Amino acid sequence: MKNTAFTPLIEHAIRAPSGHNTQPWRFTLGADCITIAPDFSKRLPVVDPDNRELYISLGCAAENLRIAASHHGYATTTAIAALYLDNADHEAGPGAPVDATWSTHPQIAPAVAQLEAWIAATK
After folding, report:
1. To 5 degrees, how large is the angle CA 6–CA 119–CA 112?
2. What is the spatial distance between Cα 62 and Cα 59, in angstroms, rounded to a whole number?
3. Rg, C-alpha atoms of the chain
C-alpha cells in the first residue's frame, strides 16, 4: 500500500540538482519507504558515458529526501540495493533503488528549518 503522506517529501527531493537538469530519477512510494531508481531514458551518453553524473544526481535527490523527512519529523535509514551494485550492465539492470525507511521519531536539525524556508521561497 502506498503512503501518500510521503508525497510532499518527494516534492522536495525533485528539487535536487541534476546533470543538465535532466532529473534522472523515478520515485516509488511504499507503505513505509520511498524507493529512488535511475531513469536511464534521461541519461546523457555523450557528456556522461559512465552515468557518473546521473548517480551523483540520484544521491542529491536522496539527500534532499532525507533532509525533508527529518524536517517533517521522520527518522530515516538509507540502503543501496546490493542487486544493482554487482550489475555491470547498468542499462539492462533493474535500477539502483535507494530505500529510505521512515519512523515517527523527530530528528530535526536547526539548519533544516532554514533549508525548508529557502525551498518554500523558491517555489
Report:
1. 75
2. 5
3. 15
Q: Which amino acid is at 56?
A: I
C-alpha cell at 101: 525507511
**Residue whose entry in the numeric block shows the C-alpha cell 521519531:** 105
Cα–Cα distance measured from residue 15 to residue 17, given in angstroms and rounded to the nearest whole number? 6
Please write the tens of the pLDDT for every residue from 59-97: 899 999 999 988 888 888 887 765 444 444 444 344 444
* Among the listed residues 90, 14, 107, 80, the one whose alpha carbon sits nearest the alpha carbon of residue 48: 90
Q: Coil, helix or strand for 109? A: coil
| Side-chain half-sphere exposure of 67, counting CA atoms within 13 A | 22
> For 20-44, what is the HEC assignment?
HHCCCEEEEECCCEEEEEECHHHCC
How far apart CA 63 and CA 69 sit, in angstroms, is 10
Residue with the three cell numbers 524556508: 117
